[in-house]
Amino acid sequence: MRKLSRIRDGGIPTAFIGEHRKSQLLKLVKAERDIKNGLLNKHKFPSTWSPCKTQLHKESDSKCAYCESPTTVVSYGDVEHYRPKSKYWWLAYCYDNYLASCTLCNQKYKKAKFKTLHPKIQGPQIKKNNTDTHLKNIVATITPDPIQETDGVSWNEYIQQHNDERPLLLNPYIDDPKNFFAWEVKPEDESVVLVPLDNQNDLHVRIVKASEEDYGINRPELCLHRFEAYLVYCAARLMSEDAQLPENYRNMQRRIRERLLRKEGAYSGILTFFEQQPIDQLVIP
Ligand SMILES: [Zn+2]
């Protein structure tokens, strides 16, 4: 996982912006009123979010926002609801609640899991007798607009809600993984595994545990892929700094090292962690 930024440009589908956004939200709050009145059993969520995939892949450099595996090479990748729509119904069509995820992180592991340190964000309190006019008035105040910061919940307020709830699953658009995560090389297992940045910090420990349980961050095949990326990185770093080697060799290894560390590179967030360590502290497999 590496820190990501939203690209708030024309690539976000119009259905998730401005009046279209409010119109989608209005259907949700009306459905919530129907549920309160016993007219509807539960929310139905027509999956209209697929058009967001292109923009989300652009934001995460065609990698899974959770595990940093390339998402577009062997599959289409998923539009993942960071806060699951089954528990946070009002965020079902909120662009800021989306991220690009690989199918395994999303469908095999995360599903609808979402642990938090503090009480969960409360959604809009819809009552049985709320009028259509009342519902229409409140939809503007429930979720952020991805383009117009002042239209809806402000982006800062949305981040504040996140911090107040403190999910145990990091949101790479809000949380910087390097403040919580460290990576440990285990040559005997051919693995690079996620560990807490500070073992004595209860929050770090709980976040790593939730990452393992909720999106399989230390699943064996992922640990092995990270290890293979680490091997190439390690060789490139050692050789690019080896004064005994001919200059053209060193230059080639320098180019390999730079490519591995580019944000588009698979697991580059993890390799950057090792790049920041002194060379004599690297575990040489
Ligand atoms: Zn993934």
Question: Describe the biggest sheet?
Answer: 2 strands, antiparallel
Mean pLDDT: 93
- Name the hetero compounds present: zinc ion
Describe the global form.
Answer: elongated
The succession of helices and strands, N to C, reads HHEEHHHEEHHHH
Percent range for β-strand residues: 5-15%
Please tell me how large the radius of gyration is: 22 Å
Number of strands: 4
Instruction: Give the tally of structural domains.
Output: 2
| Alpha plus pi helix count | 9
Strand order of the largest sheet: 1-2
Helical content band: 25-40%
Helix/strand-derived category reads mainly alpha
Distance between the termini: 23 Å
List low-confidence stretches: none
Overall description:
By secondary structure, the protein is mainly alpha-helical. Helices cover 39% and strands 7% of the residues. Strands 1-2 form a two-stranded antiparallel ribbon. A hairpin with a 4-residue loop joins strand 3 (181-186) and strand 4. It is elongated and about 80 Å long. The protein binds zinc ion. The site of zinc ion has 8 residues, from helix 3.
Please specify the SSE layout and strand pairing.
Elements: H1 18-36, H2 53-59, E1 78-81, E2 98-101, H3 103-110, H4 132-138, H5 155-165, E3 181-186, E4 191-196, H6 202-215, H7 220-240, H8 247-261, H9 268-275
Antiparallel strand pairs: 1-2, 3-4
Bound molecules: zinc ion.
Describe the structure in brief.
By secondary structure, this protein is mainly α.
Keywords:
285 residues, mainly alpha, two-stranded antiparallel ribbon, two-stranded antiparallel sheet, 9 helices, 4 strands, binds zinc ion
